[in-house]
Request: fold
Amino acid sequence: MSQTLRQTKGGRIDRSRTIRFQFDGKTHKGFEGDTLASALLADGVKLFGRSFKYHRPRGVMAAGIEEPSALVGAGTAGRYEANTRATDLFIYPGLKAVSQNRWPSLGLDLLSGISLISPFIPAGFYYKTFFGPPKLWMVYEHFIRMAAGLGKAPKVADKDGYEHRAAFCDVLVVGSGPAGLAAALAASASGAKVILAEQDRELGGSLLTDAATIDGQASDEWIAAATTSLLAKGGRILTRTTAAGFYDHGLLNLIERVTEPGQAPGADGLAQRLWRVRAGQVILATGALERPRLFAGNDLPGVMLSGAVRTYLNRYGVRTGQKVVLTTDNDDAYRTALALAEAGAQIVAILDSRAASAAGNSLSLRRAQTRLPVHFGAKLIAAKGSAKGVKSAKALIDGQITNLVCDLIAVSGGFSPVVHLHMQAGGTLSWNETTGAFSPDISRQNQTTAGAASGADGLGQTLTSGWEAGLAAAKALGLKGSSVKTPPACAEADDQVCRSLADWLPAPQTNLKKAFVDYQNDVTAADLDLAWREGYRSVEHMKRYTTLGMATDQGKTSNLVGLARLALAEGRPVPSVGLTTFRPPYTPVTLGVLAGEHTGAHLSPRRRPVLYQVHAAQKPIWQPVGYWHRPRAYPQGREDLHQSAHRESLAVRTKVGVTDVSTLGKFDVVGPDAAAFLELVCATTVGKLAVGRGRYTLMLREDGMVMDDGTVWRVAENRFFLTSSTGGADRMSAHLSYVRKVLAPQLKVTVANVQEHWAAAAIAGPLAKAVVENLMGEGAAPRHMSLGFGPLAGIPTMILAASYSGERAFEIYAPSHQIGPVWDAIVEQARGLGGCLYGLEALEILRIEKGHIVVGGEIDGRATADDLGLGKMLRPSGGFVGATALGRPAMSDPQRLQLIGLEAISGTIPEGSMLITAKGAVPCGHVTAAGMNVVQGGSIALGFLQGGRARLGDVLTATSPTRKQAAQVKVVAPVFYDLAGDQYRD
Amino acid sequence: MIDTQMLKRVTPETGRLIRFEIWSDADACLDRLAKALGTELPQTGKSANAGDLRLVWLEPMTWLVRAPEARGAAVLARIEEALASDGGACDISGALVRTRITGPAWRTLLTIGGVFDAEADTFGPGCMAATVIAHAPVRLDVISKTEIDAYTPPSYAPDLFEFWDHAAARLNLQAR
Amino acid sequence: MQSYSALNLFRRGLGGHKSWTRAWRDPAPKSHYDVIIIGGGGHGLATAYYLAKVHGIKNVAVLERGWIGGGNTGRNTTIVRSNYRQPALHNLFEFSLKLWEGMSDDLNYNVMFSQRGALFLGHSDSDMIRLAERGDAMRCMGIDAELMSKAQLRKLIPLLDMSDEARFPVVGGLIQPRGGTARHDAVAWGYARAADALGVDVIQNCEVTGMDIRGGKIVGVKTTKGDIGADRVGICVAGNSGQVAAMADLRLPIESHLLQAFVSEPVKPMIDTVIMSQSIHCYISQSDKGEIVLGGDPDMYPTYSQRGRPDRIEEVAGQAIALIPALSRLRMLRSWAGTTDMSFDGSPIIGKTPVDELYLNGGWCYGGFKATPGSGWLYAHTLAKGEPHALNAPFRLDRFETGATIDETGAGPMPHHR
Amino acid sequence: MLLIHCPHCGPRAQAEFVFERPLESIIQIDEALPDLIPKLYSRVNPKGPSWELWRHTYGCQSWLKLHRDTHNHTIHAVLEIGQTPEGGDA
Reply:
């Protein structure tokens, strides 16, 4: 392509660096510095995409982030970004962009036929039709879903990197136009640590379109000097970085596009970065956005915002039209007209809706009046043309309808200050009836607004307001005054004012059904009127009923136009009809950058036991337990999980097994009041425990339910060791701290979380004692529920004789960093005696057989100690957390779910199945854990049954309809092995 | 635009870590501890050297002492004696893994995936801070302008160290 | 009421749609009503509709502080399902789900209830057992639930990450085929229009500022539009229940927390079902417009601010990408926050208060939207009869005092542990 | 995300803290049932200033009393356990 509309010189593009890219499969050339929009416009491309609902042809309307129409898919495979604004995508070599929402092609979009039935599908039409059974709606919906959506759905995982980084500063300046630069300079000169964030690829904002002379320098030089000065004072300048969200207490999320959409990252692999900035003061210099105007066909390719037309010309050297009609309510559009005329375009007419007497007197306007066809009190009625662009305009000039031949319509409906971040921060707005603009009023955080965003008009005001905001921010932080005393001054102060006079009324002849307010979502003025007629009169109702402002441009150009239409219908001033809420993000933000590193395999921490690598060498089956990963079984040869677990559990029952119990919750409780403290958290008797002895215990929640279980050991008179479940360890740690620090601050006790200090191996089975004594000497094995100490493999260890499996068992504890040799010695010894490693699955089988409860199984947060058959363990005197709440009547309801055992009469009991008395009956309980009788075989289970303890001997069905399994079961006491507990003891 | 030199992460030799807490008669107890350890205990948010011991404030009225492994038992005994019945001590040597990060860009590294201002001028040598980085609880002890110790529970360490290695590699690439 | 149909849309379209009139009136309050509902959200409007339709009580006003549907009705992720484990809960939500199935026709307003299935993913064998348990509990009560294998999931959601390297590898799921989503705003509008047609006064911009309680009995409310008498008053303002109940000197087992949600930019269909997970607390669906709708855990501390913490959104984004890696380059377009009534067992409260003739419907935590029709129907029943229906009897306010709590997750009384 | 001025650690992000409960619902272990029920199961749930218990879980692990506005999130005071505010009860 030939870049036919590119000017031979001028602009900020680097004509020496040609960049090749593709749009819809066709190769184009642009220059370094081009956006996709500017490069394609230079090539004469007018049609960029299709609208959401009616598939109307759309071109480029804007030159920045507010673009509603020119959306493309950028990049391929995992880097494909749908709905990318062509105006906010700087081209790079190899860029592949495709148009959207058309089939089969952009030029020939068969779905554009929808436009023909548009009279019958106005706003909210879907609420009024498609009735019938839900199945029928599903049929309609299928086609609606296919027609809706914009870009193609992504299909491939994204391999690029995203990073989150925290940053802190005295003053954050958002926006690097003249106001932002002046603010940053003033704050920096006052000694503030400054971060300056700019969404564009270079600093300057409006100065990139409209060069000026500031402090006697060309604006480019002034920007360069400002940059140097800010960096020299330790400031941080972030380009291509958008402040997307303003949260509480001075926190902003900035999104840095390290690469352009679809672009391959550099060596560091980083695509985007999220800066989490906490700022002492924030200055918003976010500028203002130009608004379109209401006339029929205002969405045609070739209808563009006036400022955008000037930006394409001045910044990118692209003249977007040859015969131009301008329609405006302000002086700014005259600058566009003059620039176009100077570039050789023919200005067909300037339609100024202001009366001659109300127009401004800027230099531009005066110059235009002398040489261009300016019409005051004039409006556009309609633009006419096709997907190929505008061909003519119908205007109302001096009361006469006039047809104007043109190929570009430049529109200016005034300017809306960008108040989004101010509003996100909780601020309020004030309304200027003359300019038809909301600007910031009260700030709720340490935040001010400067420049056009604050309603400043003209470069002079803009520079001054920025400078003053910078000084004020520094002052508020208690910094010394600035060394520089005067604000930057510009030569063109008088010229760059626009004096908007808001005029919301379209020409009376306008066909409102073709006058678009929200371009992307195809919301017309007629739609808004219909919504109002039907009673959707709250601004939120109107938005939600018509979808006004809910497109990817978030209503940046449409919201105020729509609001004004509503105000007109209501006969009330704009501010009284209210505003929809401003919420993050300011512009759409990829989910990838929001997630940062924390997705995929790194979604959440994977906590590894200290022996992780040792286990990994055995190639176990792993099991997630909360954040932890623990071995579930150690299959040998071709064993599956169940075969392995059965072999392991059988080894424990008949010989000896070793398992890693390092992840258990563990606490050192030390001090003269240690026993008193433990009696507050443990529901069982602790104080009477002899030194060297331990016992099983329960901890309750304040509502009386069992929270966790564990063992408590008296290591010395004033030193206890408390264990609790792995999954509940963090909760237990917080609970102990709460009781210690909040409820019992007077106690002389320290509670240290030593969960990870100690690692431990449990040795269980008839030969467990032999393992211990072989390793540590005759008499080294403590009797059941006693503890001992001694070196093993040269490492000092602690031995707790406790059993979860039901066999004689020992837990041998060593400091985590020293556990390796201890573990190896134990495993070697156990193997030598015919034993093996066992994992969580075997442990589960063993504990079910023994009727031992587990957190997350029977301890489900809904069970009391009595429900679990442990009521008798509770200290009758009370005085522990949870004791009082047990006095509520429902806690002793005989029909509560109570723990019972189940033996299969026929079939295998499905875990998690429902207990029923007959087919079709309401379940009266459920199976919490199912296993087998390790030695004899046979399906057994634990479960909860309403009033279960009174129902021993009942025959029920354990049914699992989802798995099509069932078993006939007999209700028994919840213990299936060694009722007397003989196996525990020597 | 990051000014950095190569970042290195070094996992040092393990030492003995002792956590102790004072619950009563604080002034006298602090005096006894100062005598026992040869220096005043560091103030809130601070750390200090005492001969071959590193003392780190942990929580209100709670400190961490890092001692050479060989002297661990003796130091623990000395602390327990000084605490008497006004406080308690526990060996937590296995509960934390210490890693030393060297290179001037450690400050930048620690802002990645974090919420703490590691770049603050006031966070200099002899300062400690506890925070959360990449979901892991971390205690930081600034050793010098170019060195910082990070303590983290061993179960979180593999993920966190991998995270830091990746982030450091990126920083080193960007610095070139 | 103007009838809605394709034919009428065509007819009135010929006239440029100029002849459509208000969907509901904008009446001034009368001096007295049989029943006043405080709160014009989906639940309140549904209550008024069923009072009029089922019980013939038509002298009813719904008082709304702002615009109807402006609370949590318009701030949720539009998910409808009844796949709860606890019997009282799945019975309540299943009753509601059945009403959803006939709602569009009943109201002559298309609420776009779309039964594309509500899926819970399981990431371990123990997840799968818990899911099977839930499914079995439901199936025993005649509620649809089916376990899904990995192969079935791969077919249902081809973009799901099924790799073993995932932090939480997908091993299966439990789907409720009748679950799905609905167009949230339409529910409020549809009920308002249908209730209005039966004579109910829907009064917007009418804030209740006080309660007229005499001798322990409520006889009316004070509002910004004047005092209004009533035989019976129903509070239905989830999110602000505590504030309104305080006007009657009541303290509730409710804390107000904040729940955020957000949508991506619209793309062509990529996810058909509602995706939730047993281990990862996020939920994902795709709206008819093509936006991916995402939500997760609440912000975990009391607030009325409707200003969410960004790290929560970031967490949900990470979770969503972990499940569906292709979501990474989609962009968050809009985010919002709702104030949720967090009750102290995670279950709602529908029933009497200690004040005579004053009733409460609240405590919906973050699960109220799906209950809209059922909640309205049962609350209407309770208000009409003065006694709860068997389905909402377990959800009485005094259950905390007696200990008969209904704790689906077993998390106990602190809302932020849930 | 709030910025909470920990009396020990200085200003820190909310991500390091965990909300526990309003101070009014702290239940002593020997609390009688008629007192426990309202403390455990009812709340003023104010829309405005509220005294709350938080913990600097990922920092110094202290329990802190926050006087915080639940509507606009202003934090008026952060006290240590055992400290009481001037002129107020917490």
Notes: The mean pLDDT of chain C is 97. Chain C touches chain A through 116 residues (CB under 8 Å).
